[in-house]
Amino acid sequence: MQTPDDVANVLDWLASPIPEDPAQDLAQLSGELAALGRAALEGAHYHRILDLFFDRAHRLSQALKARLAEASLPLSKELRAMAALLIAVHENVAAGYERVLLDAERLAHSKRRSAGSVAARALRSLSEALETSCMVACPTPSDLWRRAHALAKSARAHFEPTATIIPGLSFDAEKTYKGLLALAASQPEGFSPGEVALASEYLAQFSAAVNLLPSPPPQDEGSWYWVDSNRDMGPVPPNRRIPPDHGDLLYCSFQLLARLLSEQVSALEAGMPAGNLRLPERAAGHGGIAALKRLQAHWAHPPHRHHPRRHNNFRAQVCVGLTELWKLLEKGEAPEGAEAGAPHMTEWMVLNESPGGYAVMHVSGEVEGLVPGSAIALRPEPDKPWSICVVRWMKSENPEHIELGLELVAPAARSVQLMFRNGDPEQLPTPGLLLPAIPALRDHPALLAPTGAYSARRFFIVSGEDKTHIMQGRLLSLDLQTGAVELFQFESDPYPM
Questions:
Q1: Which residue, of 126, 160, 182, is where some domain finishes?
Q2: How many other C-beta atoms lie within 10 A of the C-beta of residue 165?
């Protein structure tokens, strides 16, 4: 049992500034929070101290997620331990508020908090736990969705119009719940940690545009999702699973949110500053608009499988990263024991395949730099050509387990260098991959280059061992853009200069 002096020391610590290394503070926060749960404190006192833990946890979270935003798989042991502890802290804070909600009579007479605002803080903590899980590609914490559904229902039962009438209110339970649903519906496993953070910042501002409905919306309103409040699962589109004819069902539509985001992206592309649209500055930065476009597409049209999957169980070699792929195709495979800097290959197991790509699991070899949207080459046998893919989703249940979903963009490629006719005399050649035209994928040849490389519609392609083969091209369409690569179709320039 904690003494008054113990409680005073905890309160002093909670009021202190966050240290320069916030990870050091996280373990203490976890320990003190556990002690608070064991303390024999009366309800109002417990609630007041829990609010201080909530504030501390969220200030720490902002600092720690800045590190996670730059992360790639596999995470270092230190970073994974930090993320796991951060998720647990947010879950425990939410559990504290769930405990407060059990004392309904005291809350009914409380001048400090309403049941709706307590539920909102619990939901906010679960939202932080989900966001952190998405950033490190680990599974959603067990029972998170069942708890979130119950908290949202509790907040609705105690709905107070005067407390939630102001748009953007900090602790609006319904808005926070809508943000949770929208983040899950965006398929966050396909976004890099930084893109997940951007999506969460966006939803903190605009999730009120999500529509929650007691029955499926009319067909002319577009795609929708369903939720069973009694089950530990997030929103599901009917093209993935038909809703059951029983259960506590709720329906949600992201069409209005998608239309709003579409208008904002158009304004960004027209030169409108992000701040004028209430968007984070990075929304208009490197890869920001591309990430917003993918969010908009997922909310407007829930993705569904275009091809049946064929289960397999064979090993394949993988080369990770556009730079490594370019070196591999440019210089060939280095003999065993070659010098540092040679293309690095690892071994993976192909779990299933379809005409559109693969699902693979890491087996052996050191791998680094994996993020959704990065380029990967795969081949089943040493005498087979390298298939060029883009990482579509990632899962990592523990440091030794990594699964990837790969989208096939070409069955073969050639290393080239690009020079854009943008008038920049200091421009350096950009390494890229020349992909063939494939009727099932695209009508014209394409180029795979680092994101941000494209800077003019016309360009030179330099190839050949002696770098004397030069072709002039003109961009036709930008077909794919992620935080790591962009793919665009082109044609031979009909009007070379």
A1: 182
A2: 9
